[in-house]
Structures are given as structure tokens and as C-alpha cells.
């Protein structure tokens, strides 16, 4: 009897082991299905530096009443001169944003690098009349041939920023007006290795090194004003025969 019990226990243990061996691979195969794959984070859309210098509510210079107030309106940042302008801005967010966009467009239009649509290649003027559709996306002016192309810019702003950067660099590199760093103006470009080059607000910027980038980012309007002065001086020195594109101005109204 004792031998039978021992034999029965052995068979029971053997059967349980076989059952576990069969079920284990299945559990291993099912495990990946239960684990949710990690979702890749979407890259944040590019937003160029805020270079508008006036409050869209009061019209006063930003900084004239203390540190500017940064306000989020409809998913975008605008800067106001003081807390007294917050209420009016919140009361009309669309109108406030439109004023800011118009200011960005006025800044960037004179040196926009293209006379044709960035997407279709169609001309932006007909019989001498400007027919461009203008949109500001990520603080950047895009001049396009139609609303369909404007919608494409809004759908894929990162790619469109990149294409416009290429056009800016091609238009402004040959006659870039500074030999020295825009920030550390005593350092010649190339004296500290390959210059750092990037585009902000449809303007090509060159710095002597990466260490100067934080200073630029802290006060972009200040340094872009310095760059605009350099372009203006170069154009004046060259005289009226200078081609507008070589002066960094590819479009205008």
C-alpha cells in the first residue's frame, strides 16, 4: 500500500511538471501582448525667438514698465508691457494674437528670402501686385500663394521651418554683413572654430561659438536690431545699385 502511494505521488508530480512546462512558454508568448508599447513623444513644434518689441495692447515698448508679462493665449505666448494689459488681452485673445502676428510679419517681410511660394513655387506677385497669402507660424512669417499652401504649413510646421531656413541661408550667406560675432563682437567669425549658424525670424545669425548662444537667446530683439543695423550700413555703403536680395531683402510689399 505504501509503495502504491509513493508511486501515485510520483506520477502526480510528474504530470504537474509536464503541465507547467506546456503552459510556461504560452505565458511567455502572451507577455509581450500584455505589455503596452511605449509611445514615442511627439517633437515639440519649433517656435522662433520672440522679437516683437512693443506691447500689442498699449503699444508701449516691452521692458519700459518692468519685466514683460508673458501670457499664454490660445496655445501661444505673447508678451505684454504690464499686468494692466492682461485683462484686455484675455478679453480678446484672437485680436491680440492677430496684432502680434502682424508685428512679426512687418518685421520679417522686408527681408523675406523668396519671391515664390515655398511649397508650390508659384510667384507671389502678379503684374507687379503682391498676391501673397501671409501666415505666421511659430513666430515665423510664411508668404505663400494660396490658403491651401498655408494649411500645409500649419500641418507640418517643423518641415516648413527647415525649408525656409535653407532659403534664408542661401539668400543671405553671400553678403552677410558682419565679420565678427554678433554677440562677442571682438571675436572674428572663425577664430574659435567653425561659426555657429542658425536662422531666427528670417534672419541668418552667425556667432563665434556655442557659448554665445545663451546670450543671444536671452535678448534676441537686441541682437537682431544690431544685425539689421549692419545690413542697413552695408546696403548704404554699396549704393542704390546693390541688388535687394544681396542685402538680405528678398520680398516686400
**Count of β-strands:** 8
* Poorly predicted tracts of residues: 1-43
Structural class of the helices, strands and pairings? alpha+beta
What is the spatial order of strands in the main beta sheet? 1-2
Mean pLDDT: 84
Radius of gyration (Å): 30 Å
Q: Which geometry do the CA atoms define?
A: globular
Q: Descriptors for this entry?
A:
8 strands, signal, 253 residues, Archaeal TRASH domain protein, two-stranded antiparallel ribbon, 3 domains
Description:
Strand 3 (about 125) and strand 4 form a beta hairpin. A two-stranded antiparallel sheet has the order 1-2. The chain has a two-stranded antiparallel ribbon with strand order 3-4. It folds into 3 domains: about 45-110, no CATH class; about 110-170, no CATH class; about 175-240, no CATH class. About 40% of the residues lie in helices and about 15% in strands. The protein is built from 7 helices and 8 strands; from the N terminus they run αββααββββααββαα. The protein is globular and about 50 Å long. It is of the alpha+beta class and about 250 residues long.
Please write out the topology.
Layout: H1 2-34, E1 69-73, E2 76-80, H2 86-91, H3 93-108, E3 125-126, E4 129-130, E5 133-137, E6 140-144, H4 147-155, H5 157-172, E7 196-200, E8 203-207, H6 213-218, H7 220-238
Antiparallel strand pairs: 1-2, 3-4, 5-6, 7-8
Compact overview of the structure:
The protein is α+β, with helices and mostly antiparallel strands and about 250 residues long. The protein has helices at about 1-35, 85-90, 95-110, 145-155, 155-170, 215-220, 220-240; strands at about 70-75, 75-80, 125, 130, 135, 140-145, 195-200, 205. The protein is built from seven helices and eight strands, in the order αββααββββααββαα.
Amino acid at each position: 500500500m505504501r509503495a502504491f502511494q509513493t508511486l501515485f505521488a510520483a506520477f502526480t508530480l510528474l504530470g504537474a511538471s509536464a503541465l507547467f512546462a506546456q503552459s510556461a512558454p504560452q505565458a511567455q508568448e502572451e507577455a509581450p501582448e500584455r505589455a503596452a508599447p511605449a509611445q514615442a513623444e511627439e517633437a515639440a513644434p519649433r517656435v522662433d525667438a520672440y522679437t516683437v518689441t512693443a506691447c500689442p495692447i498699449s503699444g508701449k515698448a516691452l521692458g519700459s514698465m518692468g519685466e514683460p508679462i508673458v501670457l499664454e493665449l490660445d496655445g501661444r505666448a505673447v508678451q505684454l508691457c504690464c499686468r494692466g494689459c492682461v485683462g484686455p488681452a484675455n478679453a480678446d485673445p484672437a485680436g491680440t494674437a492677430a496684432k502680434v502676428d502682424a508685428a512679426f510679419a512687418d518685421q520679417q517681410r522686408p527681408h523675406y528670402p523668396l519671391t515664390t511660394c515655398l511649397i508650390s513655387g508659384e510667384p507671389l506677385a502678379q503684374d507687379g501686385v503682391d498676391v501673397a497669402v501671409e501666415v505666421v507660424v511659430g513666430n515665423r512669417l510664411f508668404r505663400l500663394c494660396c490658403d491651401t499652401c498655408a494649411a500645409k504649413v500649419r500641418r507640418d510646421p517643423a518641415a516648413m521651418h527647415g525649408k525656409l531656413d535653407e532659403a534664408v541661408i542661401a539668400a543671405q550667406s553671400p553678403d552677410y554683413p558682419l565679420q565678427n560675432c554678433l554677440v562677442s563682437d571682438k571675436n572674428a567669425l572663425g577664430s574659435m572654430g567653425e561659426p555657429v549658424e542658425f536662422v531666427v525670424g528670417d534672419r541668418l545669425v552667425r556667432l563665434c561659438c556655442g557659448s554665445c548662444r545663451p546670450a543671444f537667446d536671452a535678448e534676441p530683439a537686441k541682437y537682431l536690431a544690431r544685425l539689421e543695423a549692419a545690413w542697413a550700413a552695408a546696403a548704404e555703403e554699396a549704393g542704390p545699385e546693390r541688388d535687394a536680395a544681396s542685402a538680405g531683402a528678398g520680398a516686400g510689399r
